[in-house]
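Why Glutamate synthase, beta subunit protein? Reviewers of the renewal asked for a concrete example.
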Amino acid sequence: MAISMAAFSLAFVGWLNESWLYLFESPIWLNRYTEYAIILAFGLWRIRAEQNPYTRKRLIILVTVVTGFWWLIPWLMPMFEPYAGYVWSQPVFPALHTPGTLTFFLTLLLVFLFGRRIICGFGCPCVGVRETVGFPFRRFSLRGDWAWRLRHTKWFFFIWYVGVMVATQFPPNAWTATLVGMFALVVGLTYFGTFFITPITGNRFYCRYLCPFGATFGLLNHAGFFGIKMDPEQCIDCRRCEQACDMGIPVWQQGKTTGEVTSIEDCMGCARCIISCPTDALEIRDVRNLFRPNLRQDAGHLLKRKSQIPAPRTEPAHRPAAVRLSDWNQAEKVLSTKDLQRQAERCLDCGVPGCRNACPLGNFIPDWLEAAARGDWKKAGDLAHATSPLPEVCGRICPQHRLCEGACTRTQLEGAVTIGAIERTLAERALDEGWRPIKPAQHNGRKVTIIGAGPAGLSCAERLNRMGVEVTVYDRSTKIGGLLQTGVPAFKLDKTLLARRQTLLEQAGIRFSLGLSVDAAMLSDLLGQNDAIFLGLGAQKPRTIELPGQTLPGVEQALSWLKRINAGEREPLTGQQLLVLGGGDTAMDCARAALRLGAEVTVAYRGPEARLRASPKEITLAREEGAQFLFNHAPLECKGSGGVTGVRFETHEGATIIEANRVILALGQQADPPPGWPHSTL
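Here is what the prediction returned.
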């Protein structure tokens, strides 16, 4: 990008040198050919760097035509514009400059037949500069409703040029267009301003808002045979077409609404939208379709690619259920590096990335998937940690089916990208290859205390520390993690990961004060010693319902039971009937933990199977390991006298009793601030 900006500056100076030739004495090495040589060099570089065969072919034509036209202009000018040096002579239109007139109408005929503003896309010097020197800045293109509406400003210049042509009886060119009034000043401020300062305004600014020739060709797009069609049934709403369009045309929006792109007066025919479509939903149509009605110029046709069988979604395999039940290790195997990269390559890099928009952290998912596909694990780790302080944890326990993977457009094809498995592995690989959090060079003088070392507290601490704030984290537990430490079983999250993360955070400068309960008095003291206090108290209080008998021996809340399990208090339950009430991930954790202790487990849920909140992956694992499920069972009471003997349920068939020796209530959690904390002090 820096090289491109330097080239733009030098090219601009070269133009000034030529324009002010009569006012300043300039060195011989800095002239219009210096400018042309710079642009030619960038054109050759772009052609060599371009991966897409169709775009490379178009670039070759564009650079060849533009270079030939510019370098030969002193010799071509007399042929095409014989009155260029004698503007005071009365031209006779069109008899005395037939070559220029024929060229003009030949161009119009080509556009009428094939459309695409063909000169814009394949022969315009402005486009040549933007496609070569200015390509790194194309992501700065203005987009949005107002940017799209302002495109109509080019009709002012169109009307001016038509007026000049009528008044002078000469095709509009640099000489005739500046004859009337102060139009030279307008050209100087608009054309050359947007032509060379375009990195600030984004790609195609001149083409979109100012070019009168483009407006002329755009009218012929409508009058001729040109069109872009969309098959809405093939579209998967990835919106890559809109991301690829430098002219800002809402291709997806118009195509889904009408089945075609209606704003073709702005289409330059670069075909980026067509070749970016992963499902061949878009196609270009022109005069050839009159003679070959079945011709479909979609991405497959333009790229001459053979039909390929897309890579299917591949998830990590599970260890055999019998083996899993004998230990507390992770159930999933790790995908091979080759499989991970193949899965990462499946990302479509959507124009509007649903995965990122669905992620509460706004993770740069398409970016780190691209890095992972290349095998650049350190870069992928940098991108993952830019928004997530615990990617190795998120990759394991985040409900991807409801968030990133649920929003992946690949779900409409052969299955979503396995984002969770890739995130987990790239975090591990990045750490193995030396990634470490950056320790701030110095603190900015601010101090913040964080109460609670759970996910929220750790996230806040990591982000503040990165900004140079002095951070201290307090927690009543002797280990960090909060519910990650006490409420998630080891077979789902290895606790050594949390210990490693604590070490990394301490190395980055964060201090931990663990095993210390903060009461109201201490809270007030801390408030006076810090610029701010963050309360990351978590949700460790069980939600309760009106359920008679829930105080019977043998009935226990899920969190307290899992806490004992994670502390190593694993009471054998061989031969016992254990009933789990609930349908979320915590209920699955309880069921799978009880199965490892030898119990016969049944999960009872008040709603239908389709409304289970648990991850489909966790449900599958629980079933493989032997858990039974009851749906549409609403608990009415726990039965028993000296201990629980069963639970009475309301079902569609009426009341029924399910026998059980143990009952685990996994009905959700809520926040539980310590008593005596006065809100007025916070």
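The chain has a mean pLDDT of 81. This is the kind of structural detail the renewal will allow us to pursue systematically.
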